[in-house]
Write a structure and sequence with these properties.
The protein has helices at 9-27, 33-50, 54-77, 79-103, 108-116, 122-152, 155-188. The protein has 191 residues and is an all-alpha fold. It has one domain. It is elongated, with a radius of gyration of 18 Å.
């Protein structure tokens, strides 16, 4: 139980963030949208607590601040829609984090890669920049899909997209990138 051990709270809140679509599906008919949005915002803060590296955290600050502000406005104007807009805003915030680092290098993926490999070769820098572009594009597309299903789909369709298909696609993209990265490293040979 997270309440008994404060060290478990970040893990609990990350799990809450992942389960958010299902919590909205189950809770929206019974709870105010504001309460569900506050739960989502708490999950965002917990995720930030898990980021311990300043170079990575810096890329997320402005986009997440904008996302939190947007969700705060939605909480006031239209709480039920705001609860459904949470995945849209979070995808846009993540897209913003990736895209901003393309304008102000090093790219976000390069920052993460340098945590394991501080002397990243130039081909690694090019590769991480391309991966950052792919993730930014994916997140923008997922934000658009989430917005469409929030606006025109049922709550069940919204839950299915944001709680299953979006995660499935993210996992596939991540796994695909791992496979491509291994092939690129193999082809490049020793540094």
């Amino acid at each position: 139980m997270p309440a008994r051990n404060p060290a478990n709270w970040p893990k609990f809140m990350v799990a809450t963030g992942l389960a958010y679509p299902f919590l909205v599906y189950a809770g929206l008919p019974y709870l105010p949208g504001r309460a569900l949005l506050l739960l989502g915002l708490a999950a965002v803060l917990a995720r930030l607590l898990l980021v311990r590296k300043v170079a990575v955290l810096a890329a997320w600050t402005a986009p997440l601040a904008a996302g939190v502000a947007c969700l705060a406005v939605l909480a006031v104007l239209d709480p039920p829609w705001g609860a459904r807009a949470y995945p849209v805003v979070m995808n846009l915030a993540a897209c913003g984090a990736f895209a901003t680092t393309l304008l102000y290098p090093p790219s976000l993926v390069e920052r993460i890669a340098r945590l394991r490999e501080p002397n990243l070769p130039p081909r690694g820098v090019r590769y991480t920049r391309r991966v950052t572009q792919v993730w930014a594009g994916f997140l923008a597309a997922n934000a658009a899909a989430s917005a469409a299903v929030a606006a025109w789909g049922t709550l069940a369709q919204w839950t299915l997209w944001n709680g299953f298909f979006a995660y499935l696609l993210m996992g596939a993209l991540f796994a695909g990138e791992l496979l491509v990265r291994r092939r690129v490293r193999r082809q490049a040979g020793p540094a």
